[in-house]
Amino acid sequence: MARVLTPRAEDFPRWYQDVIAKAQLADNGPVRGTMVIRPTGYAIWERMQAEMDARIKAAGSENAYFPLFIPESYLRREAEHVEGFSPELAVVTHGGGKQLAEPVVVRPTSETVIGEFMAKWVDSYRDLPLLLNQWANVVRWELRPRVFLRTSEFLWQEGHTAHATEADARAYARKILHEVYEDFMVGVLGIPVLVGRKTAGERFAGATNTYTLEGMMGDGKALQMGTSHELGQNFARAFDITYSSATGGVEHAWTTSWGTSTRMLGGLIMCHGDDNGLRVPPRLAPVQAHVMIVKDGDGGALGSVAGAASKLRDALRDAGVRVGFDDRVDTPFGRRAVDAELKGYPVRVEVGPRDLAAGNAVLVRRTDGSKTPVAVPDVVASVLAALEADQQALYDEALKLRLDRTVTVGTLADAIEASATGWASVPWSEVGPAGEKEANGQGVTVRCLIRADGSVPDSEDEPELQAILARAY
Amino acid sequence: MARVLTPRAEDFPRWYQDVIAKAQLADNGPVRGTMVIRPTGYAIWERMQAEMDARIKAAGSENAYFPLFIPESYLRREAEHVEGFSPELAVVTHGGGKQLAEPVVVRPTSETVIGEFMAKWVDSYRDLPLLLNQWANVVRWELRPRVFLRTSEFLWQEGHTAHATEADARAYARKILHEVYEDFMVGVLGIPVLVGRKTAGERFAGATNTYTLEGMMGDGKALQMGTSHELGQNFARAFDITYSSATGGVEHAWTTSWGTSTRMLGGLIMCHGDDNGLRVPPRLAPVQAHVMIVKDGDGGALGSVAGAASKLRDALRDAGVRVGFDDRVDTPFGRRAVDAELKGYPVRVEVGPRDLAAGNAVLVRRTDGSKTPVAVPDVVASVLAALEADQQALYDEALKLRLDRTVTVGTLADAIEASATGWASVPWSEVGPAGEKEANGQGVTVRCLIRADGSVPDSEDEPELQAILARAY
């Protein structure tokens, strides 16, 4: 068979671009740094949205929609925020054929405009907490774009909440971190993210504390899969989000924000993909079982094969399986099989005249490539078992990689060296802000700080923290 | 009770703004013409999306996502298209701190950028039809903005398809018109839309044929609720969307586009709303039954009331009803009831100590305001029956209005006069392009052309067509 993809070991970044092109996940847009998400890629994003959205709503947040255009002056109200985002802004100077009196920016994120409305809507402590989320596009001009990972426009959800106390804001930022993000990434994406706290140097512009979920990609690099921020009273002061307390005083609220984006599609590819293409974890997959009709060599008996295949499709659908169906018998089977592998459908059910004559269909599992004849009446049960097992198998494989390629070292120099091939865990006391700068100079970043027991610290000044250093996307 | 809303008869536009503000559906955004869709409004939009999206997928289209930013040069490739949209464009001139070599426009619609990619993806007749849809925001600079109806940024779905023949393109544009749009608007929104064909003067910029769905609002004006366009080969020529046919020749494809937007929220308000607020048809409603705890006058027995209310909530949920729950007993009940009316929940289930002592809860139906004590074990069945009946009742009421306020006349002059209070049906032969201009000069437009039997014409040159004239939003 002709080589479809560049092997990962040969050139990982080229393999990544190959998968995106050949599996028809996305294209580059005409304006530099933008992307077109094709139906195969978008169907995965829709599944991510559905799973995330249910968790966000279960955590009590409600969806809303705020404008794409933000007055430039809003960004300037929070000093760190404007400093962080200014270099990445797209600016609209003309509208309706006229130059605008005040230029507007295309939102890079929405803390400012949402802060403005929180100030209008919050009056008393009874209005808190105010828990909002939006699904939207945002724009951050990218100098070195890469599809899904860094694009000038991307799709995301951004949550924004206001609380009466710092403790309540912190608890909610952590609730989202664990109950929404970690639960989804571990349980559905099958990615064993490391959950920790960003250093002051890596915080979101305007935050007092940033939590992060870091995934290890197939080449040992890190990808920030999502973040949850405590914003302290910074935005509440800048936008005057105040409330009258139960005791009658007027207080500034405490706010949080948190986001995940189409970047997760990049993480999915780089965490689970192999040299034959994408592998989509069953719980996420838009197509979990792909029923394929195999044409008879001599062109006979296609009717009964098609009938048996349709019945299997319906039986799988009735059992709650998301089913694809491929009856394009005029296309060579080999090409269709390669396409199914590229797109990473967890299970293929091949129905052909020869196997059917023996009462069988063939189950092909994408995770390990195994092909097993299964008696037709047992297909549904076998598919369900395979989906369950392969969800776990992909997670286990990713966890093994992360453990194998994370080394515990004692010095900054060793950590930087170890970052060439994976992650390094080193005492934060050996690094500190000065060591962090040194590492940054060599393309290595502190991905997060964690406690010795793996839990998330409340401050970077806690004793005995471990820093995770790595190269990152 | 204090007057909450301006009565419709007193000032319909002010009533509309009042409903939007008091039901907390939306706010004006800081940049002129933009809007903030608040959770109550957005939940309705999410329900619209879910119902529409299922129908769009059933019609065979797949979701994708194309970039927000379009090179200015793309728009210029189709002469009518650029002429139609130029006055409404928002233009980005700076990105990443630098002036852009070529300014980019914020998409007002995506025929051009999608045409560019259709050209890349379509090779042979086997690649057709190519059926795409996207859910996205678009920007059209508005001089006279009105929330939901005309906003500088709005949310919508836009479908874009390419076909091998004109007949196939026409059949698909009509399939979307009837099986997606009409089916949704009639069956879910409960709006008896009139489906017809736009005149040449009212066509989408770049289309060869535009189909429309027109709803009558409470004041007798028309609202265009959605459109489906045949684009002929205009965009296929401009973007070189060609395919090799089965016989070996190279042909231009035939394309369509079709869209519906957050404007439907405006139509919902103005079609079904009354002087007490919004009335949301049950099949659309995010909250179909709103269970409210009524506080005892003397503060006693709240525990058992709360228990009974929770049980009713769970029983309704188990029966597949979308349930809201209001246990804010510290807020005066009158205020909570007014809020529920404003937001238009189809059924309220009031659970209080006095009725409960008699074994009852009280069902309040938003459609007709009726209040009925119902034995607790019968509540679920009564709610289901009320939801079914009130879906029909709202449709019937809207249809009656449309029929009552549509008059059939014989001359253009009579049609223009009748448009002051409703719709006029007049022979198209009495109007024609010249009469259409005359009507336009007096604020009246030809909403659509229909055949005598109510069906949709293939051409505006068919004999015996009726023109529907009205004032419109």
UniProtKB/TrEMBL annotation, chains A, B:
<dbReference type="Pfam" id="PF03129">
    <property type="entry name" value="HGTP_anticodon"/>
</dbReference>
<keyword id="KW-0067">ATP-binding</keyword>
<dbReference type="InterPro" id="IPR036621">
    <property type="entry name" value="Anticodon-bd_dom_sf"/>
</dbReference>
<comment type="subunit">
    <text>Homodimer.</text>
</comment>
<keyword id="KW-0648">Protein biosynthesis</keyword>
<dbReference type="InterPro" id="IPR004499">
    <property type="entry name" value="Pro-tRNA-ligase_IIa_arc-type"/>
</dbReference>
<dbReference type="InterPro" id="IPR004154">
    <property type="entry name" value="Anticodon-bd"/>
</dbReference>
<dbReference type="InterPro" id="IPR002316">
    <property type="entry name" value="Pro-tRNA-ligase_IIa"/>
</dbReference>
<keyword id="KW-0030">Aminoacyl-tRNA synthetase</keyword>
<dbReference type="InterPro" id="IPR045864">
    <property type="entry name" value="aa-tRNA-synth_II/BPL/LPL"/>
</dbReference>
<comment type="function">
    <text>Catalyzes the attachment of proline to tRNA(Pro) in a two-step reaction: proline is first activated by ATP to form Pro-AMP and then transferred to the acceptor end of tRNA(Pro).</text>
</comment>
<dbReference type="Pfam" id="PF00587">
    <property type="entry name" value="tRNA-synt_2b"/>
</dbReference>
<keyword id="KW-0547">Nucleotide-binding</keyword>
<dbReference type="GO" id="GO:0004827">
    <property type="term" value="F:proline-tRNA ligase activity"/>
</dbReference>
<dbReference type="InterPro" id="IPR016061">
    <property type="entry name" value="Pro-tRNA_ligase_II_C"/>
</dbReference>
<comment type="similarity">
    <text>Belongs to the class-II aminoacyl-tRNA synthetase family. ProS type 3 subfamily.</text>
</comment>
<keyword id="KW-0963">Cytoplasm</keyword>
<dbReference type="InterPro" id="IPR033721">
    <property type="entry name" value="ProRS_core_arch_euk"/>
</dbReference>
<protein>
    <recommendedName>
        <fullName>Proline--tRNA ligase</fullName>
        <ecNumber>6.1.1.15</ecNumber>
    </recommendedName>
</protein>
<dbReference type="InterPro" id="IPR006195">
    <property type="entry name" value="aa-tRNA-synth_II"/>
</dbReference>
<keyword id="KW-0436">Ligase</keyword>
<feature type="domain" description="Aminoacyl-transfer RNA synthetases class-II family profile">
    <location>
        <begin position="32"/>
        <end position="281"/>
    </location>
</feature>
<dbReference type="InterPro" id="IPR002314">
    <property type="entry name" value="aa-tRNA-synt_IIb"/>
</dbReference>
